[in-house]
Write a structure and sequence with these properties.
By secondary structure, the chain is an alpha/beta fold. The chain has two domains: 200 residues, Medium-chain alcohol dehydrogenases, catalytic domain (Quinone Oxidoreductase, Chain A, domain 1), CATH 3.90.180; 125 residues, NAD(P)-binding Rossmann-like Domain (Rossmann fold, 3-Layer(aba) Sandwich). The chain is built from ten helices and 16 strands. Strands 3, 5, 6, 7, 8, 15 and 16 form a seven-stranded mixed β-sheet that branches. α4 runs parallel beside α5 and α4 packs across α9. The longest helix has 15 residues. This is Alcohol dehydrogenase catalytic domain-containing protein. GO terms for molecular function: metal ion binding. Its cofactor is Zn(2+). Keywords: Metal-binding, Zinc.
């Protein structure tokens, strides 16, 4: 089989690898049918990552189940499934408490798309082994488009977690989104659908701001801190100066969620945060827990994640098209 491999800044190539085989009765082999780049993949391709190449890329996809072990009961060959980015067993203490990104049955941070916690390959591959199929794989609900939901492995479900629980606790909250890519746009869509009173989306890219306006958000190219302006702030830029802007805009006892990958250091206004009582979370998400709820919201028709898909491209275009600067390209492989 082929797996797409990151080899140098803005350079990827197909490399041949052995077809994966089942290693236990709990496993499955899947074939990605719609895969997309995560916002962090863009940073890796730009040379901002902290892991030296080469390694297999890709950790967001909808796939078709090809083969299952004898003990797998949740999915069957032919099913369309979401493959979560992190490897998790579903049975250890961490998994049972929802910390699926910290599963103790595998090395810490075991994941697809980067050799952290072992080498598990990437989801831009013709075939993928899923070690704990019943725990990991989530069937795609009937009626949902695999292209629109290719990001449910990570960015879409993460975006649900960034705002949905907070809006349940704080109905009609004011939401600030400081972003540069798909996560921020998904947040705009979800926040409006779940009852936010105001959503302000800040991004220098006019194309992104146009999508945000389509979701009912107000937009700005840049923003000076709005003192006590927002109940919930979401930062998804990977820039500490933008995170500082977000936390300075949060109301007393407000919440700031950081979904950016901060490869570079910076300073936060800790005294301001202390005086305001800001709750700041900076986290790689335990996304497997949230995938069913995020898919259910998509199935409800209240949101439209397909608007964020910038390009639909053929699977064989991956080496040439992935390094280009697209918002949310989805690569589709013909079946049969």
């Amino acid at each position: 089989m082929r797996e797409l491999t990151y080899v140098a800044r803005r350079t990827v190539e197909w490399r041949e690898a052995p077809d994966p085989k089942l290693r236990s009765d709990q496993e499955a082999i899947v074939a990605p049918v719609a895969a997309t780049s995560c916002d962090v993949d863009s940073a890796i391709l730009a040379g901002h990552g902290f892991i030296d190449p080469p390694f297999a890329l890709g950790h967001e996809c909808v796939a078709r189940v090809v083969e299952t072990g004898d003990d797998v009961t949740a999915v069957a060959p032919g099913d369309l499934v979401v493959v979560p980015w992190s490897i998790n067993c579903g049975a250890c203490d961490h998994c049972r408490s929802g910390l699926t990104a910290h599963c103790t049955a595998v090395p810490h941070m075991a994941m697809y798309g980067a050799p952290i916690g072992g080498s598990w390959g990437g989801l831009f591959s013709d075939l993928v082994r899923v070690p704990y199929a019943d725990a990991m794989l989530v069937p795609l609900p009937a009626g949902l488009d695999p292209v629109a939901m290719a990001s449910a492995s990570d960015n879409w479900s993460l975006s649900w977690r960034l705002v949905a629980p907070h809006l349940k606790a704080r109905p009609r909250a004011r939401v600030l989104v400081v972003a540069r890519g798909s996560i921020g746009l998904y947040v705009c869509d979800i926040a409006r659908a779940l009852g936010a009173s105001d959503v302000l989306y800040v991004d220098p890219d006019p194309r992104h701001r146009e999508i945000a306006r389509g979701y009912g958000a107000a937009t700005a190219e840049t923003l000076e801190p709005v003192r006590h302006g927002f109940d919930i702030a979401v930062e998804a830029t990977g820039r500490v100066d933008q995170l500082a802007l977000a936390v300075r805009s949060v109301a007393p006892e407000g919440i700031c969620e950081s979904a950016g990958n901060h490869f570079r250091p910076g300073e936060l206004p800790l005294l301001d945060m202390y005086l305001t009582g800001v709750t700041l979370r900076v986290a790689r998400d335990n996304v497997r827990n949230h995938i069913p709820d995020a898919l259910e919201l998509a199935r409800s028709g209240q949101v439209d994640p397909a608007r964020v898909v910038s390009h639909v491209l053929d699977w064989d275009q991956l080496p040439d098209a992935l390094p280009e600067k697209h918002l949310k390209p989805v690569f589709v492989r013909a079946e049969g």
